[in-house]
Amino acid sequence: MRQCVALLMAAGSGVRLGGEVPKQYRDLAGVPMLRRSIEALSARPAIDAVQVVIGAGQTELYAAATAGLDLLPPVLGGATRQESVRRGLEALLDEPPALVLVHDGARPFASPDLIGRVITALAEAEAVLPVVPVVDTLKRLDEAGSVADEVPREALARAQTPQGFRFATLLAAHRRHAGVACTDDAGVVALDGVAVQTVLGEEENFKVTTESDLWRAEALLAGQPRRWVTGTGFDVHAFAAGRRLVLCGIEVPHERGLAGHSDADVALHAVTDALFGAMADGDIGSHFPPSDPQWKDASSDRFLRYAVDRLTARGGRLEHVDLTIIGERPKIGPYRDAMRRSLARIAGLRVEAVGVKATTTERLGFCGREEGLAAQAAVTVSLPA
């Protein structure tokens, strides 16, 4: 059973921002805003899956923005945000989670700490809302635009997302109050008398709505100094009869597979070790010791996702992977594109940022004698300076 699923709302047309495409598909420093919002959520280990609700006619834009990401199938939204949320929730009924986070596709800067605060608070609350205190003086205006009076700000706050809920609570409220206009999901559950717990939001977690917001987002990204680090990894596995041959997470037809405690995916092992090397964070054996029975025949995509999560928790990003598979057979060429797509999906990269090559050792050594396969990988990561 999934414990927590994030529902990302991206069905709007973004008319206030203008442009040729809806705002959630606009680029921020070369990356679609929607992708940045997704990655902020999918990088959190406590979130088991991310599902995006999109608008009519956005299928191709969505596919381009999310290429290589491991997501639940997108859901087509409705005429209103509330209807879109309800449709997204109902799409999860085949495997309903205990908790759901609802986040705006145009809020690309939700931090790990903020997301963690919301999830932690759900241990004791049915609904959680991140808020930011109002610091400006507030004035109420009359019809002519003149100041009528001052509004006390002490009890006021600005609401943000992700908003967190017990899944059953939010779905029941949306079904019961369909058609009743509310500005957010906390307002919908409040109609059922559900107490909404607040946690501290963040000023950087603003919603991109206007052109000036877009400029602010670009400036925020440009103002984050980063350092670039390279890591390398190398791995070897012998051939063994009676096992599947798995490379980059896909099964490759061959008369023998590779021997190992896990699924022996020599390619993913090399990439994972390269990532640990870039972080100076040990190696794959120290994190997943072969003496531990829980990793017996384990799928190696779990190892790479774990390494990517550790990088993300440090504020880092995996930028590029270059992988070389070494052996006489099988020939990698027919499976290269599938390997790139699979590796990109597992690592949360666009396919264009993944290189997969193959070479032989000219019949020299254990690879040349077809006793096994080797792989070497180099990764580029960026980390906060």
> Count the helices. How many?
12
Oligomer: single chain
Form type: elongated
- How many domains, in number, for the residues? 2
Topology-level CATH name of the largest domain:
Spore Coat Polysaccharide Biosynthesis Protein SpsA, Chain A
Largest sheet: 8 strands, mixed
Mean pLDDT: 92
Helix and strand content put the structural class at alpha/beta
By CATH, the architecture of the largest domain is named: Alpha-Beta Complex
Radius of gyration: 24 Å
Task: Give an overview in words.
By secondary structure, the protein is α/β, with parallel strands linked by helices. It has 2 domains: 4-222, Spore Coat Polysaccharide Biosynthesis Protein SpsA, Chain A; 226-384, 2-C-methyl-D-erythritol 2,4-cyclodiphosphate synthase (60s Ribosomal Protein L30, Chain: A). It contains 12 helices and 19 strands. Strands 1, 4, 5, 6, 7, 10, 11 and 12 form an 8-stranded mixed sheet that branches. The protein has a 5-stranded mixed sheet with strand order 16-13-19-17-18. A two-stranded antiparallel ribbon has the order 2-3. Helix 3 (81-90) packs across helix 5 and helix 8 runs parallel beside helix 10 (301-313). It is elongated, with a radius of gyration of 24 Å.
Topology record:
Layout: E1 4-10, E2 27-28, E3 31-32, H1 33-42, E4 49-54, H2 59-65, E5 75-76, H3 81-90, E6 99-104, H4 112-121, E7 127-133, E8 138-141, E9 147-151, E10 157-159, E11 163-166, H5 167-176, H6 185-190, E12 196-200, H7 211-222, E13 226-240, E14 246-247, E15 250-251, E16 257-258, H8 266-279, H9 284-287, H10 301-313, E17 317-326, H11 336-347, E18 354-359, H12 365-368, E19 372-384
Parallel strand pairs: 1-4, 1-6, 4-5, 7-12, 17-18
Antiparallel strand pairs: 2-3, 6-11, 7-10, 7-11, 8-9, 13-16, 13-19, 14-15, 17-19
